[in-house]
Amino acid sequence: MVEVFAVASGKGGTGKTTSTVALGMALADQYDVTVVDADTGMANLLFHAGLSDVETTLHDVLAEDAAVGEAAYERFGMTVVPCGTSLDGFRESDPTRLREVVATLAADTDVLLLDSPPALDSRAAVLPVVMADRTVIVLQPTIPAISDGLKVQEYATSYGTDVAGVLFNKVRDDERIDDVAAKTDRYFEGSTLATVPESERAREARRAGRPLLAHAPDCAAATAYRTAADSLSIRRGDSEAVADRFRSAVIPDTP
Q1: Are 11 and 119 in contact (CB under 8 A)?
Q2: Pick from 10, 61, 9: which is nearest to 40 by CA?
Q3: pLDDT tens-digit profile of 169-189?
């Protein structure tokens, strides 16, 4: 079985990578989970997973200089495929080869999480959303973030990708999140998976190079991420059929 989720936001700064890793760790209690940094231009998953010193990354795989397995690392109960941060690595890689990477990984996991680029401004940027079975949309309770999130949903559904739900992140005490969530439910497909509070522990975790659920497993934000993971009913998909779909995925035109 395998199901692929794109974790997307439509804008930067929402805590998308923190959310991807946290969901991955929470889901790893029940499933074999693989997390891929599909943001090949502005990658930072490696900093969240304690992999900043690794030599081989997704950039090398996309440049056909390494096999997928060489860029896959076992960390915190998950398989993590980080992307590099160098400009040369980005230039030499071909993001369209992500199709083959995901197809290969799909053969040996239950859940694939694609940490997607924060903007739908290129064919490569929208590819993770197009390939996924479902999308988790990470939002802050602000009008610009919600507006950009709606663009992600529109693009995803136009290519047949379902919306698993909305995850509100970095929510402050003074924000009327219940009112915002109620209004958001009118426009977004899928339910509100959880509301994650603004958390200093999340910032501490990133500075320490550790996922939030490893750094502060009992904090309120970690608990909220577990609630979100519990809200995702993983669908069983045939690994071979999924892999074939990825390999033949049509790369869309720039939005």
Answers
A1: yes
A2: 61
A3: 998 876 677 667 666 778 888
Cα distances from 107 to residues 17, 71, 81, 247, in angstroms, run 24, 16, 15, 12
- pLDDT tens profile 17-30: 999 999 999 999 99
Query: What is the rounded distance in angstroms from the CA atom of residue 113 to the CA atom of residue 66?
Result: 21
Rounded to whole angstroms, the Cα distance separating 130 from 251 reads: 8
Q: Choose among 103, 112, 107, 100: nearest CA to 64.
A: 100
User: How far is CA 186 from each of CA 10, 150, 159, 192, 233, rounded to the nearest angstrom?
Assistant: 19, 11, 21, 11, 22
Half-sphere exposure of 133 (CA within 13 A, CB side): 23
Side chain identity at 251, as an amino acid letter?
Answer: I
pLDDT > 70: what percent of the chain? 89
Where does the pLDDT of residue 31 fall: very low under 50, low under 70, confident under 90, or very high at 90 and above? Answer: very high
pLDDT confidence of residue 228: 97
